[in-house]
Design goal:
With about 750 residues, the chain is α+β, with helices and mostly antiparallel strands. The protein is about 30% helix and about 25% strand. The chain contains 16 helices and 28 strands. The strands form 7 sheets. It has a 4-stranded antiparallel β-sheet. Strands 2-3-4-5 form a 4-stranded antiparallel β-sheet, with no helix packed on it. It has a 4-stranded antiparallel β-sheet with strand order 6-7-8-9, with no helix packed on it. The chain starts with a helix and ends in a 9-residue tail after the last helix.
């Protein structure tokens, strides 16, 4: 499905939510697979509607898709089974065991046998692992927390958990704009057009007996300017709403230039649609009621005629009707998304709606037009400076100079660090405990290439250039300053298990990143040999090699859009290139500001691309890119002095940027080029500190002098750390309670 078609589905979801068609909203979410409504999912789980839970999930994943999906379905079916046993409904429990749980027997036969043996117990709590099982409500809540973690870590749900931000009633606004253009294209436009249907294009009837359309009134405005009202409520079988003509007072409010003595305003030069002439506007009229009639007809059919069919045959018929509704609105939207011709002469309709005032204000002052969805299911994201982590709450000491940091993507207080002597460490920030530590060691020197063996014999010193977690947090990768990349599997208790050792590049490995080009996890590397390579993260088998840079490759940034996977890369000569996974060469060739060391990163929602770099002369540049045109969209201010090192940056919450420069951390709002605020982290920072946000943006790790790491927190981060401290204190007083089964 094209991008516009996908966005149209979101517009329809917003419309249905605003009109309280809750059941149909969730059916469209499931059928389209574009947006996973976590709130709706929580309600279903807490209500024990297990069939509907699995039906909703089926729009996004299946049991066999990956291990996260398998775990999700297993936890749901296990809970359903335990609740049947708790009700002493043995027949239902046996049915669940045979129909739902048996599919997992091929993956873990011992576990299936153990679950089966629960049937022989009078109370399954006699099983030691289930002895702490409480009542149904608490058990569902505990399971729900586990499910949410699995869903957030599941790559199939990537970019489907957040509803895109746009203005309320956006679909209605677009149709209003379409009606406005249709009226401007009328051969005989009337100042009081009579629009009675949305099923056909609007056209003013020709004046009878050769009479001309009446001119605008010469008197002053005699009525208030009408505002677009909300849609009237519609029930499943509500009668069609009558079409009511606007009052004369309201019509007077739309007339153009009511005082003919005033000169006509100048029309701004530019493409049609970019800047509307001041004397034109959106025809409000009876639009709300006409859309209500249209939607009422469709939903009268949906909830009336198909009600019995839905109850008897499941949801397939309802899905067909929802698809029909989507298709009808798609055709309607396509009609007014076409580029219209500029009208030569038509009496405009003067409107001063809140939308027009906001647009004109935005044109004057450059204010971004980003308004989050206002429906109950998709709350807006509003942030302030108070959401930035600026309070120092922890100070850690790694023992050697920290070169790279990365927070765990799931466990928000687990921090991975790499040092200038090749060490890596994993810290539990909440308890200030270093739960894992590995010094550099070549695992199999015999399998290394001769250049690597020679480099190690000449100089054994080695540095970590980059370390980071895989998207699910189960694997971590480490890039070293000589040839090698190592990957480990991470066990939550802090154990690191060797996984793959890759002799990746001749010279240093400057950056690594994880991606899923073939639905399996891969690791991307770049190095001093001017190459970019892609490897299987599990086996270390090479998959792709990309050649084309004329200097050492400094960083890589993988991404995907519309199911197209690609990689941005930057080299130390300032060249930015983009690659598809086809070995056919670079697709683009941009120049980075500063023409030296530059890193690139997308916002968390994947919609905005940023880069930060420093020139050889120490001039730093933080910019936002228009990635489709290869042009800089926005340059951020705040780098006043020449930097003493390469400036590092990070993004958080799709709203803030942060960079380490001039012995402080600087923050920007993504939509404002001026610096927002700074913090010196209570002193002790290097000239260009490295930094990293955790996933929620509640914690910020910053490198400090004397091998230190400072942890900054906002209110949420401080609350999280206090909660972990209290848990640690309670754990020290007694053994932890085990709740979950195997």
């Amino acid at each position: 499905m094209s991008s516009l078609s996908r966005e149209l589905v979101f517009l329809i979801l917003q419309f249905l939510d605003e009109e309280k068609f809750k059941e149909t909203v969730h059916k469209l979410e499931q059928e389209s697979g574009f947006y996973f409504n976590m709130k709706h999912f929580e309600d279903l789980v807490q209500g024990g509607e297990w069939d509907e839970v699995e039906r909703y999930l089926s729009g996004f994943t299946k049991v066999e898709d990956n291990r996260y999906s398998m775990k999700i379905f297993f936890e749901i079916r296990k809970q359903k089974y335990l609740e049947a046993l708790d009700r002493h409904d043995r027949a239902k429990a046996v049915e669940i065991l045979v129909k739902d749980l048996k599919v997992f027997a091929s993956f873990n036969e011992e576990l299936f046998k153990e679950i089966t043996q629960l049937l022989t117990l009078d109370n399954f709590r006699q099983n030691e692992q289930l002895s702490k099982y409480g009542d149904t409500k608490s058990a569902r809540n505990i399971m729900l927390m586990e499910l949410k973690k699995l869903i957030e870590a599941n790559p199939l749900f990537r970019d489907k958990l957040n509803f895109p931000p746009f203005k309320a009633s956006r679909l209605r606004t677009l149709i209003n704009q379409s009606l406005n253009w249709q009226h401007q294209l009328c051969k005989n436009p009337r100042p009081n057009p009579d629009i009675k249907t949305l099923f056909t294009d609007h056209s003013c009837a020709a004046p009878t007996n050769g009479a001309r359309a009446p001119p605008p009134a010469n008197g002053p405005l005699v009525g208030p300017i009408p505002k677009t009202a909300g849609f009237p409520p519609m029930g499943a079988h509500a009668p069609f709403q009558p079409v009511v003509s606007p009052s004369p007072n309201a019509i007077a409010g739309w007339m153009t230039n009511p005082n003919p003595s005033l000169p006509h305003p100048a029309i701004a030069q530019g493409p049609p649609g970019l800047v509307q002439p001041p004397n034109t506007g959106i025809i409000k009229l009876q639009f709300s009621k006409m859309v209500s009639v249209t939607v009422s007809m469709l939903f009268h059919f949906l909830f009336g005629y198909h009600k019995t069919a839905i109850q008897q045959n499941g949801v397939c018929h309802c899905f067909n009707v929802v698809s029909f509704f989507v298709w009808m609105l798609y055709l309607f939207a396509a009609a007014f998304l076409k580029h219209p011709r500029t009208p030569t002469s038509a009496p405009g309709i003067d409107y001063q709606s809140a939308d027009s005032e906001h647009l004109m204000k935005r044109m004057r002052v450059g204010q971004p037009d980003e308004v989050s969805f206002s429906g109950a299911s998709h709350p807006p994201n509003v942030y302030s400076q108070e959401d930035l982590p600026k309070q120092v709450v922890r100070t850690l000491n790694q023992g050697s100079n920290v070169m790279s940091l990365d927070f765990h993507p799931v466990q928000q207080t687990i921090l991975l660090v790499g040092t200038n002597v090749g060490d890596i460490g994993i810290w539990e920030v909440g308890s200030r405990e270093r739960i894992a530590h590995k010094t550099f060691k070549v695992w199999d020197i015999g399998s290394c290439t001769l250049p690597l063996q020679a480099a190690l014999m000449k100089d054994a010193a080695i540095c970590v250039n980059r370390c980071l977690w895989s998207p699910d947090g189960n694997i971590l990768g480490v890039a070293f300053s000589k040839h090698i990349v190592q990957t480990y599997t991470f066990v939550p208790n802090g154990e690191l298990r060797q996984q793959a050792e890759i002799d990746a590049h001749i010279g240093g490995v400057n950056d690594i990143a994880f991606s899923h080009p073939n639905k399996s996890l891969s690791i991307i590397t770049c190095g001093d040999d001017k190459l970019i390579k892609v490897w299987d993260a599990q086996s270390g088998q090479k998959q792709y090699t990309f050649e084309g840079h004329e200097a050492s490759v400094y960083s890589v940034c993988p991404h995907y859009k519309e199911n197209i996977q690609f990689i941005f890369s930057t080299a130390i000569d300032g060249k930015i290139k983009a690659w598809l996974y086809d070995c056919l060469g670079s697709r683009v060739d941009y120049d980075a500001p500063g023409h030296w060391c530059t890193t690139m990163s997308y916002s968390a929602d994947g919609t905005r691309l940023f880069s930060c770099g420093t020139s050889k002369d120490g001039d730093s540049h933080l910019v936002e890119w228009n990635e489709t045109e290869g042009a800089i969209k926005r340059t951020y201010n705040g780098f006043r002095k020449r930097s003493l090192g390469v400036v590092q940056f990070d993004t958080t919450r799709n709203h803030f940027l942060a960079a380490g420069d001039e012995f402080v951390v600087k923050f920007w709002d993504m939509d404002n080029t001026n610096i927002l605020t700074t913090t010196d982290c209570e002193g002790g920072l290097p000239a260009s500190p490295r930094l990293r946000f955790n996933r929620e943006g509640s914690l910020l790790a910053v490198t400090a002098n004397d091998n230190g790491i400072k942890i900054l927190a906002n209110t949420d981060g401080q609350r999280l750390l206090r909660m972990l401290e209290s848990r640690a204190f309670e754990g020290s007083r007694g053994p932890p309670q085990q709740i979950n089964t195997k």
